[in-house]
Every structure is written in structure tokens, then in C-alpha cells.
Design a protein that fits this description.
By secondary structure, the chain is α+β, with helices and mostly antiparallel strands. It folds into two domains: 60 residues, no CATH class; 228 residues, no CATH class. Helix content is 56%, strand content 9%. A four-stranded antiparallel β-sheet has the order 1-2-4-3, with helices on one face. A hairpin with a 5-residue loop joins strand 1 and strand 2. Helix 5 packs parallel to helix 11, helix 9 crosses helix 10 and helix 9 runs parallel beside helix 11. The longest helix is centred in the middle third of the chain and has 29 residues. It is elongated and about 85 Å long.
């Protein structure tokens, strides 16, 4: 089978009994892809690496992978729906000010007839759409490239967010760097687009306060600011802020808020949806940081190779620490030190063929998403 695609120089069993074929140096991406398809029919898999005078292909028995229990995925999803809904209810009734009284005063000014369960549903729908479609972006890329991957595993959590996110488990390695790149970029790209959509919806269903409401808001903001030690008040600028006002906003959300002030002057963005967009932007940022086996790490590993990936991981960790995400950065460092693969990223079967030129351009898009979702830690 190898000889049907490559010019064979030698073939033997290595000291571990693994069939090894040495072939001449040549562009291998398409040929190796066709070889993998042949081997797949025989329950085999292969890896290709470069040597000083050619290429070496090793053939392995494809490992048996147990089918996933989809009931676990469903159970975790339903549990996460419940915890995110409860978080949305908590946000609407108690807020993030540490004072239920302040939150109820704000509701009485803005929307006294609002249904708290509908508001909780808005938050849950917005946040779960961002997280879920992010993971299904990965799933779609894996399916497109015929890689085995599980359905998303959602992770429930406590208020005020209600979840620790979601993940999918890859059951087969990417064939080449193109596939690894697509796997890494697909999730953050979809998540970023959905985050923008959710933020835009918070504009569409936002309200423009009357003169009386604006006066009451100014008084409430001053009172809230005095209690929380915020000199500029809890709502620093009615024209460009959501309610309640929060720190740690990313550039993309600041742009959306300021565009709102131009298109709909005086609009108060819907706080439930806008906070869901804030969390979505934060999760997108943390995922696309170019470190270790994060999505951004997969992208960097595909573009720069193993050595470049290590450099990118150091830069990514420095970005996390600079932005104030010390806990997350230390957690990634711990994984890097104690993981079986150490600092290494996901290794494709064909690690000698470079990523395509179009994907190198798309890498700039990934950096753009990193910049647009960057925010200093609000914690």
C-alpha cells in the first residue's frame, strides 16, 4: 500500500516490531492522505516523519475506541441548562452588586413588570448558545475531516455563571496540520460570531429610558456607587453601558456598546444577554490564547510546528498573567508539567507537510479574535 503512493527505499520491522517503510523525500500531504484511507480499510493507521535523507512511515494497528455513552452527554447538558437558568434567575433577582436591595431598586426603575423566569431564560439561552455552538464548531470540523469525536460534555457550575463551559473528546488524531488548524479555529470562530449575535440582540431588545427614568437611574447609580466605592457610579454612562455596569469588557463588546450609542442614543442594553455575551467573549479569549492544548495552541502548533508551539505557549502564558488570569495560567502550567505529553501540543500523523497558505492567512483572523476578545480580568 505504501508503494502505491511513494517510492520505497527500504522496509523493515523496528526494534519494537512496528512495520517501518523508508521512502524518498517528496511532497507528501495528498499521497499520505490517500494512504491513510487505504490503511483505514484494513484497521490500520500510520505516521510519517522526516529524516536526514528521506521520509519514514510507520504503520500501527488502529486502537479500538469504546463508543461514547450519549446518556452522559444528555445528562450533563440538562444539568447545565438547570444551573445556568438558576444563575440567570440569581443575576436578575440579586445581581452582582452584593445587594438584593440595589438590584430590586434598579428593576423597579427599568422594567418593574419583567418576568424573572423569562429573564433567566434569556441569559441561559444566550450563554448556552455561545458555549454549545462553539463545541459544535469543533464537532463539525472533526466530522468534515472524518475524525472521531464525542458530542459535547457540558460542565455545570454555580452562580453567577452556572457553568464551567463544555468540551469534546477527540478519539482519533488529525491526519495533518491543516486538519489540526481547522479543529482549533472552528470553535473560537463560531463562538465569537455567536457572541457578537448575542450582544447585538441585547441592543435590539434594550430600552431607551424616559426622562424620568434617566433621572432615577442617575440617582440610583450615585447611591450604588457610594455603597460599592465606585466614584463614577454603577452606571458610568447610560449611553454606552449595559446595566448593571461591569468591568472586564472586551474590545468587541465596547465597540458594540459605542455603536449602540450612535444608532440608538440613550439605549440601555439588556443586561442578561449582554452579560452572557461578556462571558462568551471571555471564554473565547481564554480558548484562543496560543498555549499548550487550548484551541489557540492547536492553531499555533499547526502553523509553527513543535518548536514554534513551545514559544507560542510561553507568550500565551505571559498574556494570561499580564491580563490578570493568574489562576487559569497556573492551571495550564500545572497541566503542562504533569501531563504525559508535557509542553507538547497535539501531534498530527503527518507532521512534515506545512499548513496551507490560506490557513496561514486565517491565522491572522485568529489573532484578530484574540485581540477583540481580550479583556483584563474582572476578578
Amino acid at each position: 500500500m505504501v508503494a502505491s503512493e511513494f517510492q520505497v527505499k527500504d522496509a523493515f520491522l523496528d526494534p519494537y516490531g512496528i512495520p517501518t517503510v523508508q521512502v524518498t523525500q517528496e511532497p507528501a500531504k495528498e499521497k499520505f492522505q490517500r494512504l491513510l484511507e487505504q490503511l483505514h480499510q484494513q484497521g490500520l493507521i500510520a505516521a510519517i516523519r522526516g529524516t536526514t535523507d528521506g521520509l519514514t512511515i510507520k504503520v500501527f494497528q488502529k486502537p479500538h475506541v469504546k463508543p461514547s455513552n450519549k446518556n452522559i452527554n444528555l445528562g450533563l447538558f440538562l444539568a447545565t441548562v438547570a444551573t445556568v437558568f438558576l444563575a440567570g434567575y440569581y443575576l436578575w433577582t440579586s445581581g452582582l452588586f452584593g445587594s438584593q436591595v440595589l438590584q430590586q431598586q434598579l428593576i423597579a426603575i427599568i422594567d418593574p413588570t419583567a418576568n424573572p423566569y423569562l429573564k433567566a431564560g434569556l441569559f441561559a439561552g444566550g450563554l448556552l448558545s455561545i458555549i454549545g455552538l462553539h463545541e459544535f464548531g469543533h464537532k463539525a470540523a472533526a466530522r468534515h475531516h472524518k475524525m472521531d469525536a464525542t458530542l459535547p460534555y457540558f460542565v455545570p457550575g454555580p452562580p453567577p455563571i452556572g457553568t464551567f463551559g463544555a468540551l469534546i473528546s477527540l478519539k482519533s488524531p488529525p491526519a495533518n496540520r491543516d486538519q489540526l488548524f481547522d479543529l482549533g479555529l472552528s470553535g473560537p470562530l463560531v463562538g465569537f460570531v455567536v457572541t457578537v449575535v448575542v450582544a447585538a440582540l441585547s441592543v435590539l431588545i434594550g430600552i431607551v429610558p424616559t426622562a424620568s427614568q434617566a433621572t432615577q437611574l442617575s440617582q440610583w447609580s450615585a447611591t450604588c456607587g457610594a455603597q460599592l466605592g465606585a466614584p463614577n457610579g454603577c452606571i458610568s454612562s447610560i449611553d454606552v453601558s449595559s446595566w448593571p455596569w461591569r468591568q472586564g469588557e472586551s474590545l468587541i463588546l465596547i465597540l458594540i456598546a459605542n455603536l449602540t450609542s450612535l444608532a440608538k442614543p440613550g439605549t440601555l442594553l439588556d443586561g442578561q444577554l449582554f452579560f452572557a455575551a461578556q462571558i462568551g467573549a471571555l471564554l473565547t479569549f481564554l480558548n484562543i490564547v496560543p498555549a499548550w492544548q487550548l484551541d489557540g495552541g492547536h492553531i499555533s502548533r499547526a502553523v509553527f510546528g513543535a518548536n514554534g508551539h513551545r514559544v507560542a505557549s510561553v507568550i500565551g502564558l505571559l498574556v494570561l498573567f499580564f491580563a490578570g488570569y493568574w489562576t487559569f495560567g497556573i492551571l495550564i502550567l500545572a497541566f503542562m508539567f504533569f501531563s504525559r505529553r508535557g509542553f507538547a501540543g497535539v501531534e498530527p500523523l503527518d507532521d512534515i507537510s506545512p499548513v496551507s497558505n490560506s490557513r496561514k492567512l486565517l491565522y491572522i483572523l485568529g489573532l484578530g479574535i484574540l485581540v477583540l476578545t481580550f479583556a483584563f480580568s474582572p476578578f
